[in-house]
Amino acid sequence: MYGFDELDKVGSARFAWGPAALVDLCIERIRSLRGDIGGAVFDTYLSAQKKLSEMDLPGATVVMAAMRAPLFEMPVDAGGRTAYALVPPTYIDDKALIGKVDAAVENVFGKATPIRAPFKTLAVLLGLAKYGRNNIAYVHGMGSYVRLRCYIATRQVESSYPAPIRPLEKDLGSDYLSDECRGCDICESACPTGAIENRGFMLDASRCMTLANEDAKKLPGWYEKSFSHCMVGCMRCQEACPMNDGKLQRIRLRSGLDKDQAAWVLNGSDDPEGRLEAGVKQVLKENGMSYLDDVFARNMKSLYNAGRL
Asked: Are 93 and 272 in contact (CB under 8 A)?
């Protein structure tokens, strides 16, 4: 499918590409579904995606890369015993792998600019992935445990996929759904909130745990104590999915919370000099998770109350 030596050398990644015009077509389609997706969810996660014409970004080819992404386990000293807070794939960057992928794409396609785009839809259109009922993209050989990255490149290259699907001519609710999902309801049963419905791969984003606990606002009323599964995000539907069997890699982080730091986060113990708070921020920084500082304590308490620590 790929045929480019530079890309083949990146063993932990897969690639696909096609005409740059697909980006604008995808964004038009996503914008047309704002009402179905939910205005608040759209404004938070999708409104920043701009058409190439709006960015004044010239380009001939859109390139999608899918990189393996592991589950991380952060150690927590929970009163004399070590527990592990799960951090799902994509929340921590593998900067070395991203750098290799960036270099390989530029070597093949010329100047390549990373952009925000409808990653999952583009990956499906280009034949790199297929949608699951849980609204997650599955890449052959990797499952859904992937980081997607999108580029606009200057060099015109024949598409890696014989006939990219025109997104405006297809029903997003059924035409892009993986064959393995038809007649299967495993992820629907695994979702504790009822967010996964029988609507192809469209879900009720207003009841998605990931969207709720990524937001620094107060958790919604439907978010029960037992729901918490990861430090951020969820993963219940992905863990249950047969298409992910045997594909999850785990990495145990070296930096974690010591006993005093854990007590401060989980129980609000005294920290008059701010030493514990500074130590927790340092742990997040060392793990590449400083951007989660505003939800970290709340989500860790939820994990603890759910018996996950």
From this structure: no
* Distance, CA of 115 to CA of 45 (rounded, Å): 14
If you ran DSSP here, which 8-state letter would residue 196 be given? B
Q: What is the DSSP letter of 165?
A: P
Compute the chain's Rg from CA coordinates. 20
- The answer for 94, left when phi > 0, alpha when psi is -120 to 50, beta otherwise, is beta
Residues 6+ apart with CB under 8 A from 284: 290, 292, 293, 296
Measured CA to CA in angstroms, residue 188 lies from 181, 204, 226 at distances of 11, 12, 17
Could you give the residue ranges of the DSSP H alpha helices within the chain?
5-8, 21-32, 34-37, 39-45, 52-55, 95-109, 119-125, 186-190, 209-214, 236-240, 259-267, 275-286, 293-305
Structural contact between residues 36 and 79, judged by C-beta atoms closer than 8 angstroms: no
Domain ranges of the chain: 5-305
Cα separation, 300 vs 302, in Å, equals 5
Look up residue 88 and give its two tokens: 């799902």
40-49, 65-74, 240-249: which has the minimum mean pLDDT?
A: 40-49
Length of the chain: 309
Q: What are the tens digits of pLDDT across the range 84-110?
A: 999 999 999 999 999 999 999 999 898
pLDDT digits (tens, 9 = 90+) for 137-157: 999 889 999 999 999 998 888
Question: Which residue in the block uniquely carries the two structure tokens 């695994």?
Answer: 190
Most confidently predicted of 9-23, 158-172, 180-194: 180-194
Separation between Cα atoms, residue 274 and residue 159, nearest integer Å: 55
- What is the distance between the alpha carbons of residues 240 and 103, in angstroms, rounded to a whole number? 35
d(CA 234, CA 213): 9
- Give the predicted TM-score (pTM) of the model: 0.87
